[in-house]
Write a structure and sequence with these properties.
- By secondary structure, the chain is of the alpha/beta class.
- It contains 13 helices and 16 strands.
- It has helices at residues 3-20, 48-56, 70-79, 94-97, 116-122, 205-219, 242-245, 269-293, 326-329, 344-347, 374-382, 396-401, 465-478; strands at residues 23-29, 58-60, 63-64, 126-132, 151-155, 168-171, 174-177, 225-230, 300-306, 351-354, 363-365, 369-370, 412-416, 422-427, 430-434, 446-449.
- The strands form three sheets. A ten-stranded mixed sheet has the order 7-6-5-4-8-1-9-10-2-11, with helices on both faces. Strands 13-14-15-16 form a four-stranded antiparallel sheet, with helices on one face.
- Strand 13 and strand 14 form a beta hairpin.
- Helix 6 (205-219) packs parallel to helix 8.
- The termini are far apart.
């Protein structure tokens, strides 16, 4: 056989193998509240692309993030370990821990930590991530290139991501300068006219990251790939493009935001926040269009979710953090709490999954699930071996059978050292919460029936002492010591303390 013919045969064989493998695109919003897109009840901000994704796939009503803030939530997602076992349980800035070694980045995953991206890479998938990492500085054990991401472009550090016009982004281990006059992520303007133009730089980071995502799909259209897109919207600072802001009514804003609740000022904060969610929706549309352009729409599993709930109020300001306004947009609807809280508003997140031919279109599913589930779910979906020791359970049967709700075999739990120290456990339809565990007056157990009271308004702890005992036993068994992120849980001798 001639070499040219042999090469053609091998190329065709390789292409056939690639065609048999599912691609995976996991899109993660940043601080997007449960009620902030159309199919979850949002009335003011159009989100046609996300609504279309839900119409073509399955929408979950009881899906939860890994944690109520960024870094630990991403740790749970990437490792399949709940917060009782996770290495990263809070937002820890490494430049404050060891400024001689680090100038940015969060507490790194260890060398031993095995990630979802590593599982795909080990199986021969091309792996990429564009957006915000937050699991270890460049050069550390948590560097995305050391954790299964072959090609990374974006922010390594959550703090740098507070500005959408930063001095640089990372392309793998190289700093790529994008703004000679970067815009700060934090500033106040107590007086004078607040102008959008004063907070614009040369290059808007989301535009560059979105272009890189499209190029990744272009490069690997003939190979199986895992693409992780942790976009930064709608996390403040708030300086979306002027054209995006001007899509929304001037009547929404009768006063500027002057930076009194953190981050930067904005002359039209309601329109500015809506613009960020609208832009995020546009990125989803562009990803889907690129997949369709290359004929990949039918064999790419697309997951969309958010890393935690909408940002919280910051009294005495009339606004939430950064000029957001969760009440104006009904961002968490009737749920209790916001980002930073283990109540439903901090953890329950919009989640949509699409795969034509496998996942029924237009389905609404009420099965409780959370970020720890995605590692085993995606392994089962694409036929990878599921590692031992994961805390989640596969949702693939839920996704493909079309049942409205399935009972979990494994409980869900959150052990969160920040915002006073908190724990939460979900047992079936019941949820148990304890607050202020790192204060002098730890709160008592609270118990809620989420099927009847998803707003967590009626504490049933007096009626369910057996559930409290069950939750305490679960925490004794499931929470391992973590000296970096301690949470003292009264009465739980083996808690992380």
């Amino acid at each position: 056989m001639k070499l040219a013919s042999l090469a053609a045969l091998l190329l065709g064989f390789t292409g056939a193998i690639a065609a048999d493998k599912l691609n995976v695109v996991f899109i993660l919003a940043d601080d997007l509240g449960w009620g902030e897109i159309g199919v979850y009840g949002q009335k003011k901000i159009p989100t046609p692309n996300l609504d279309a994704l839900a119409a073509q796939g399955m929408r979950f009503t009881q899906h939860y993030s890994g944690a109520p803030v960024c870094a630990p939530s991403r740790c749970v997602l990437m490792t399949g370990k709940h917060l009782g076992h996770a290495e990263v349980r809070g937002n820890r800035a490494m430049e404050r821990v060891d400024p001689s070694k680090y100038f940015e980045g969060q507490h790194p995953l260890s060398e031993e930590a095995f990630t979802l991206a590593m599982a795909f890479q080990k199986a021969g998938y091309r792996t990429g991530a564009m957006g915000k990492w937050g699991l270890g500085p460049v050069g550390s054990s948590g560097d995305p290139n050391r954790k299964g991401i072959e090609y990374f472009y974006g922010y390594n550090c959550q703090g740098v991501a507070h500005s959408f016009y930063p001095p640089y982004l990372w392309r793998n281990d190289k700093q790529i300068m994008i703004n000679t006059k970067p815009v700060p992520g934090h500033a106040k303007q107590p007086e004078g006219v607040v102008r959008m133009e004063d907070w614009f730089g040369e290059n808007y980071a989301p535009t560059l990251m979105m272009a890189e995502a499209e190029q990744f799909i272009d490069r690997h259209k003939d190979e199986p790939f895992f693409l992780y897109l942790p976009f930064i919207e709608p996390h403040v600072s708030m300086h979306p493009p002027k054209a995006s802001v001007e899509k929304f009514p001037e009547a929404w804003d009768d006063k500027p935001y002057r930076g009194d609740a953190g981050y930067i000022p904005h002359p039209r904060p309601h329109a500015g926040y809506a613009a960020m969610i609208s832009d995020l929706d546009g990125y989803v549309g562009r990803v889907m269009a690129r997949l369709q352009q290359h004929g990949l729409g039918e064999r790419t599993l697309v997951v969309f979710s958010s890393d935690n709930g909408a940002t919280h109020p910051r009294p005495p300001s009339a606004f939430h953090v950064g000029g957001a306004d969760g009440k104006f947009f009904d961002s968490v609807r009737d749920l209790r709490g916001w980002k930073g809280s283990v109540y439903e508003g901090g953890l329950r997140v919009p989640t949509i999954v699409r795969l034509p031919g496998k996942i029924p279109a237009g389905k609404v599913n009420h099965t409780p699930g959370y970020f720890a589930d995605w590692f085993p779910t995606l392994c089962e979906a694409v036929g990878l071996p599921t590692p031992d020791g994961l805390d989640g359970e596969s949702l693939w049967p839920v996704l493909t059978r079309g049942e409205d709700r399935m009972q979990r075999r494994k409980p869900m739990l959150w052990v969160f050292p920040e915002y006073g120290g908190q724990v939460a456990v979900r047992l079936g339809q019941m949820k148990l919460v304890r607050q202020n565990l790192k204060t002098k007056t730890p709160g008592p157990w609270e118990v809620y029936d989420l099927d009847k009271d998803r707003g967590e308004t009626t504490d049933l702890s007096a009626q369910h002492p057996e559930l409290i005992r069950q939750a305490e036993e679960l925490l004794r068994r499931e929470v391992k010591d973590n000296a970096v992120f301690p949470v003292p849980i009264p009465g739980i001798n083996t808690a992380a303390n």
